[in-house]
Structure formats: structure tokens, C-alpha cells
Amino acid sequence: MFEARDLSRPVEVVRDEHAPDALVFDCERDFETLPPAVAEDLGLVVNTLEPASYPAAWLPEDAPTLLSRYASSDLTIGMPGDGSVVWTRQTDPPIVLVKPRVEGSPESFVDFLLAEAFVELGLDTPEHFIGFFEDEYADLDQAVDLDPNSTYQIAAALYDGWTGLQTREVFAEWHEHSDRAELGDAWQDAGTRLEDRVAGLPRAVARGETDFADATELACASIKHAIELPAPFAALDTSAYRDHGPEYAIRWAEKTFDALAE
Fold first, then answer.
1. What average pLDDT score do residues 33-62 get?
2. End-to-end Cα distance, the chain
3. How far apart are CA 153 and CA 131, in angstroms?
4. Burial of 190 (C-beta count, 10 Å sphere; 0-12/13-18/19+)
5. What does the alpha-carbon distance between residue 57 and residue 45 come to, in Å, rounded to a whole number?
6. For an engineered disulfide with 117, which of 28, 56, 87, 204 has Cβ 3.0 to 4.6 Å away?
7. Amino acid 261: pLDDT
8. Average pLDDT, the chain
9. Where are the domains of the chain?
């Protein structure tokens, strides 16, 4: 299921700086969440497995099953919305898993995704949004007037955006270093490709072409690329959000959904 992946020199440089102990594996099959038996197989290639767990009281009664499982003591690696490259600190050393879906993507973009994973691993931040919102997830659930799966999607997006406010400073600096300038170019190119889609989000939501959860996911994923966001997402691209985290996100959700209801 897992095969050690060779890294390009620029990606190795980023790993050495941000997550020097991390192991990287290609996965044989795509997944959202690894089956428990497969996840436990990682015990063969790491020193220890330390499953994350959170109080059940932090979750609303109608929380998606996968979120409840993640909060429990089960070893849960990979969650919906994680993308093509997944990292976890539930192992020692930490690991980065590359899904087969990256096949066909430009090599430079895959390198950026790997480098991004190492930068995120090096941050002193939770691995998942439930560790970010903690018991305030119930407040977000109350603010978001959507079904539980859409609330999950928005929570994951908001956490992704908050993380992006921190990582993009690192990405922007890559252009200043010849040994990782290619990664900086890939980061910038990915942002350029998103600009038109992001600019058109309010129109797409108003016409019913995109639902609000999908729009939030795209907008928040764009924060790390430092491109201009339209309202109401522009309010998330601020130092106030970076500084105040979950409280700010919940207040944003309250104001946004109040406005949508008018």
C-alpha cells in the first residue's frame, strides 16, 4: 500500500527546514480516509502510532460519522477535503502520503503540494479543524444554516484559509532562494489559475451555479496564494482572522448567513 517516494532537490530543502523527520510515501490506492487496518499498517514503517482524540461533547449530535470517528480514539488518517497530499502527526515520525490522483498533474505542482505539506507540518497548529474550533464548533454549527456535511465543508475551508494566512509568507519567500525558486513559481502559477474562478464566485453563487460551501472552499483555498478575494470572503483575508482564529471565523459565519437570509 505504501512505497517510499523520492523527492526533488527543492522539496528536500523544504523538508529539511520545516519537517526534517517526516517520511513520504506514495499510496497504492486513492482514499478519503484510510481503512483502519491499512492505517495501522503504518506501524510497520514508523516508531509509534498516537491517534488523535477529542471530547465527543465538542461535536453536534448530527455530526458526520467520519468526524465522530476522527474525534474518537480510532486511528483516523485522511479526511474529506484533505486533497491529494495528506500529512499526519499521529505517527512518530510524521508522515506525508501522496495519493495516486496526482498522476497527470504537472511535476512542479506536485512538488508544491509536497513542500506545502512540510511547511504545514512545521507549524504549531492542529492537524484538523476540530482541534482548531474545539468546543466552539457547536457555535459554528449553529451559525451555518446548512446541513451537517456542508457545515463540515465550511469548517474545513475556514481552517484551510486560516492556515494559508501563515503558510503564504513562507511560499512568497521561496522566490528569494535559488534552491526553491521553482516552488515559488509553482505557487504563483497556481494562484494565477485560480484568479478568474475566485473573482466570479459571487455571481456563480447568486445564479445557483455554485453552492455556498463549495464557494467557501475555493475562496479559502485561494488565501494561501495571496490573490484578491471578493466579498464576503475578503473579510477572511485579514490579520484579524490570523490573530483571532475560531472566534473570528464564527463571527464571520454569523454575519454572512444573516446577510444571506435577508
1. 93
2. 51
3. 15
4. buried
5. 34
6. 87
7. 82
8. 96
9. 2-261
How confident is the model over 170-187, as pLDDT tens digits? 999 999 999 999 999 999
| Gyration radius from the chain CA atoms | 18
Contact 253, 243 (CB under 8 A): no
d(CA 100, CA 62): 32
Question: What pLDDT is attached to residue 231?
Answer: 96
Buried/exposed code over 231-240 (b: 16+ C-beta within 10 A; e: otherwise): ebbeebbeee
- Confidence band of 28 (pLDDT split at 50, 70, 90): very high
Note the helical H segments in the chain: 9-18, 36-41, 65-71, 107-121, 129-133, 137-143, 148-173, 181-199, 201-206, 212-223, 239-261
Q: What is the pLDDT of residue 164?
A: 98
Question: Which residue, chain included where needed, has cell 473570528?
Answer: 248
Amino acid at 227: I
Three-state DSSP at 30 gives: coil
